[in-house]
Amino acid sequence: MAKVTGPLMSMDARGALGKAIVFSNWKGVAVVRQFVIPSNPNTAAQQAVRAAFSSAVEIFKTLSAEDKTAWGRRASGLAMSGYNALVKYCSAAIQAGKTWVNINNVNEGAAATNSTITVEVTTDALKACKIEYGTKTGVYTSTKEEVADPADLLPRDIVMTGLAANTLYFFRVSLKTPGGTHEGTTGEYTAMTAA
Questions:
Q1: Which of 12, 37, 41, 43 could form a disulfide with 6 if both were Cys (CB 3.0 to 4.6 A apart)?
Q2: 48 Cβ partners below 8 Å, 6+ apart?
Q3: What is d(CA 134, CA 115) in angstroms, rounded to the nearest whole number?
Q4: Considering Cα of 46, then 178, then 110, then 155, what sign does the dihedral take?
């Protein structure tokens, strides 16, 4: 039943009126549309999208507070939250038939010196990673890859070298070899070199 918060003709109504029309608000604009019942709301394609979305949501739930903050930082220039950004990238990879590699527990700038930052990374698959970094948020001018494929899932180090002293760096971690059957990336982290 439509809930009228003002005169009906003022378009401040919300909800369905019978099974004929629906009153709603979309992006601040009052809208009236025809009431439609989908012919098949549970197609195979829709089930695949829902499954990918559910998987992405479950992955987000496993992230630490620091990882969630990093996703929020990565989404800051977009019209979405960090949660939405992760779900977007992860569900798109899953829908494309890839396995999402969760890269998490990133230690931001462990043992930083005046010219290096050591980043500790954990993944849920035996895949090598790389770091893209730069001095401006969202702008990554350099890349550092793991020297060899990891032997296990334990935290491992990637060292960024040749950095400027007393400088804030922005970085994200992703798979060393994108494409193929696996995909994975993180939000954006920050680390400071020593003076």
A1: 12
A2: 95
A3: 14
A4: positive
What is the domain count for the chain? 2
Q: What is the CATH number of the domain that holds 100?
A: 2.60.40.10
Q: Are 131 and 140 in contact (CB under 8 A)?
A: no
Q: How far apart are CA 71 and CA 118, in angstroms?
A: 20
Phi/psi for 181 (5° steps) reads -100, -5
Query: Are residues 104 and 18 part of one domain?
Result: no
Could you tell me the pTM of the whole model? 0.74
Same domain, 102 and 176: yes
Structural domain range at position 187: 44-192
List per-residue pLDDT tens for the chain, 195 residues long. Answer: 555 565 555 556 677 777 888 888 777 777 888 888 777 778 888 898 999 999 999 999 999 899 999 999 999 888 889 999 999 999 999 998 898 988 888 888 777 888 999 888 888 887 888 899 999 998 999 998 876 666 666 777 888 888 999 999 999 999 877 667 888 899 999 999 988
Q: Which residues contact 115 (CB under 8 A, 6 or more apart)?
A: 161, 162, 163, 164, 165, 193
Residue 39 lies in a domain: no
The pair phi, psi for residue 50, each rounded to 5°, is -65, -40
